C-alpha cells in the first residue's frame, strides 16, 4: 500500500515527485488574527514588565503553537529593547519528548538558525524536567508556554498563574490561550513563519513517534492510494488531536483491503513503527503541539 504525502505544491509517492493537482479543496480560508495577536503581545509585555529577561524561559517542543509564541515573543522583545539581536538573550528550552520525530529534531536546528537562538535541551518526565530546569538556573521565575484553551485540561487557565503546589514553583504565562487552530495557521502562512514539515503530510498535533500519526480527517483516496492534505486544511478544529493514537483507534479507518489506517501508517510513513498502546497525557496537556 503506497501512501501519498503532500508538500505545499507537490506530492510524493514513495520517492517519485509529482505535481499536486490544482483544486479549490486545497485552498485555505484564512482566519483573522489581528485581535488575538494584540492580546498576546499585551500578555507578553505584562510578563516582561513583571520579570527580567533572564528570569523568563520559553518552553519549546517544535510544534506549531510554540513556534507562533516564539515569533510573537521575539517581536515584542525587539520592540521593548530596541535590539534586533535580542533573541540571543531569550532562554528557550526544548522539551524533548520520549521518542521524538527526526523531523522535529531537524526543525529545532532550523529554528535556531532562523531566529538566532540557542535552544537548551532537556528530557524526561515533565515534572522532573521542570524541577531540573529551575535548579540549574535559579534566576528563572516564569515560563512562556504555547498552550491554547482547546488543549486538554486548559479550558480554565488564566494568562498568568503559578504551577500547582505539588509542582516546582514557577509562573506559567500563556499568551496564545485564545487563539484558534486556524488563526495559528493563518499567522504561520501569512507571515511566512517556519514550521515542521510533518504538518505538510497530514500531522495536526505532534507528540512522539509512539503516539502520533497523520490525522485521519485529512486522509482521502487517490486511485487506491491514501493521501493526506496539509494540516492547515483541517475543516473541523475539534479534530486537531485525532492523529493521536487513542483517537485513531476509536475511528479505525481502513484502506479498503482490510488494513486499518494505523497498519498502513506503521508500514509506510517515514519508516517509523507506531504503537497504539502508549499515551503521555500529562505531557500532552502541558506541552502540546
Concise summary:
This protein is an alpha/beta fold and 289 residues long. The chain contains eight helices and eleven strands.
How do the strands and helices of this protein lay out in sequence?
Layout: E1 3-7, E2 10-13, E3 16-19, H1 34-50, E4 56-60, H2 64-81, E5 91-96, H3 102-115, E6 119-123, H4 126-136, E7 142-144, E8 160-162, E9 171-173, H5 181-190, E10 219-222, E11 225-228, H6 245-251, H7 261-268, H8 281-286
Please explain how this structure is put together.
- The structure is a single chain.
- A hairpin with a 2-residue loop joins β2 (10-13) and β3 (16-19).
- By secondary structure, the chain is an alpha/beta fold.
- It is globular.
- It has helices at 34-50, 64-81, 102-115, 126-136, 181-190, 245-251, 261-268, 281-286; strands at residues 3-7, 10-13, 16-19, 56-60, 91-96, 119-123, 142-144, 160-162, 171-173, 219-222, 225-228.
- Helices cover 31% and strands 16% of the residues.
- It is built from eight helices and eleven strands.
- The strands form two sheets. The chain has a six-stranded mixed β-sheet.
- The longest helix is centred in the N-terminal third of the chain and has 18 residues, at 64-81.
- The protein starts with a strand and ends with a helix.
Amino acid at each position: 500500500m503506497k501512501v501519498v504525502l503532500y508538500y505545499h505544491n507537490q506530492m510524493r509517492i514513495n520517492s517519485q515527485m509529482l505535481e499536486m493537482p490544482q483544486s479549490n479543496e486545497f485552498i485555505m480560508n484564512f482566519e483573522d488574527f489581528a485581535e488575538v495577536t494584540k492580546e498576546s503581545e499585551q500578555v507578553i509585555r505584562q510578563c516582561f514588565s513583571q520579570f527580567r529577561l533572564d528570569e523568563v524561559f520559553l518552553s519549546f517542543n517544535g510544534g506549531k503553537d510554540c513556534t507562533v509564541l516564539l515569533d510573537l515573543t521575539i517581536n515584542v522583545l525587539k520592540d521593548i529593547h530596541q535590539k534586533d539581536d535580542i533573541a540571543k538573550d531569550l532562554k528557550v528550552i526544548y522539551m524533548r519528548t520520549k521518542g521524538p520525530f527526526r523531523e522535529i529534531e531537524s526543525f529545532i536546528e532550523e529554528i535556531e538558525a532562523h531566529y538566532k537562538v540557542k535552544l537548551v535541551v532537556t528530557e524526561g518526565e515533565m515534572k522532573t524536567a521542570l524541577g531540573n530546569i529551575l535548579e540549574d538556573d535559579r534566576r528563572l521565575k516564569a515560563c512562556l508556554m504555547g498552550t491554547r484553551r482547546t488543549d486538554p485540561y486548559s479550558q480554565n487557565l488564566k494568562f498568568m498563574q503559578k504551577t500547582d503546589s505539588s509542582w516546582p514553583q514557577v509562573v506559567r504565562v500563556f499568551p496564545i490561550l485564545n487563539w484558534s487552530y486556524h488563526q495559528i495557521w493563518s499567522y504561520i502562512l501569512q507571515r511566512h513563519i517556519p514550521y515542521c514539515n510533518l504538518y505538510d503530510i497530514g500531522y495536526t498535533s505532534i507528540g512522539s513517534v509512539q503516539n502520533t500519526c497523520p490525522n485521519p480527517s485529512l486522509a482521502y483516496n487517490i486511485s487506491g492510494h491514501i493521501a493526506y492534505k496539509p494540516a492547515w486544511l483541517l475543516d473541523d478544529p475539534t479534530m486537531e488531536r485525532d492523529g493521536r493514537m487513542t483517537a485513531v483507534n476509536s475511528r479505525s479507518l481502513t484502506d479498503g483491503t482490510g488494513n486499518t489506517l494505523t497498519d498502513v501508517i506503521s508500514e509506510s510513513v517515514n519508516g517509523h513503527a507506531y504503537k497504539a498502546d502508549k499515551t503521555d497525557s500529562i505531557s500532552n496537556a502541558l506541552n502540546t503541539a
